[in-house]
Amino acid sequence: MIDFALRVPAEVATYFTWGWVSVSVPNLIVIVTMIALFVLALLLPFPRDRHDSRNDS
Amino acid sequence: MNAETAGSHETAPATTWIGRTREYLERKLPYEKLLPETQPSYVASWIYVFGVLTLGALAMIVLSGALLSLKGPAWYHVSSTGLFANSLHYWSVQLFFMFMVIHMAGKFWMAAWRGKRAKTWITGVVAFVVSIGAGLTGYVLQTNFDSQWIAFEAKDGLNASGIGAWFNVANVGQDMLIHVFLLPAVIAVIVAIHVLLVRVHGVVPPIDAAKIAEVPILQQTPQAEEAR
Description:
- The structure holds two protein chains of two kinds.
- Chain A is an alpha+beta fold.
- Chain A has helices at residues 2-6, 25-43, 50-56; strands at residues 15-18, 21-24.
- Chain A has one domain.
- Chain A has a two-stranded antiparallel ribbon.
- In chain A, strand 1 (15-18) and strand 2 (21-24) form a beta hairpin.
- The radius of gyration of chain A is 23 Å and the shape is elongated.
- Chain B is built from ten helices and no strands.
- Chain B starts with a helix and ends with a helix.
- In chain B, helix 4 runs antiparallel to helix 6 (80-109), helix 6 (80-109) runs antiparallel to helix 7 and helix 7 (118-140) runs antiparallel to helix 9.
- Classes of the chains: A alpha+beta, B mainly alpha.
């Protein structure tokens, strides 16, 4: 019972530390995903409207 | 009554504050601006999608949150369906913040406050800040060890900033009411103003395209079809 009470039912995340920068893996995943989505949003072509594609052909 | 007299109320000058408000809204936000069918060509970019993605995530947050508030913690902490709804709420929040940050970054780098759009930018920033408060109160409402740690870390920060005089983060009842009523109401009002301001001023053009911003390419109107 005491053993159960002492065990904290929450996973502690792994942290990356570079000098004063300290970031957990879950937070790093979110940050990298956001940057990737931002870059992809700028680079990926937007699908054209079907009226436009009809005229282009 | 002929057609001329029937439509006379549209041209008669307003004599009351209701009429003046109507005239102001008709001038600032005609139906063509409120519900536009066409957008300038530069809107055909993925970076312009993240605003509406943020709104979509917000809708999911509100719907799942309404379900959680109706069923209560005994449901969403225990039953499998309740846990699913709880997770839906949580992950909608994750997407909401991700989309909002990308939306804000895109608008920041295109200086979206240009062209008298300062209020649009400011309301967006205020919505972001209030959302952080909603996120904090939501994390604390998990009522687990994680929320306990967050609450007592946040308590020091809130006390240091003076907010602790009005908001005790360890008071679950106060936290619950702020999370499910006060902050959602504030966010709803701010987001509504933000979207209406976007409609009033239009979507901000890229910096290079500012001078040719009004050239419509995504035509869907019958007139545009005939012109071809």
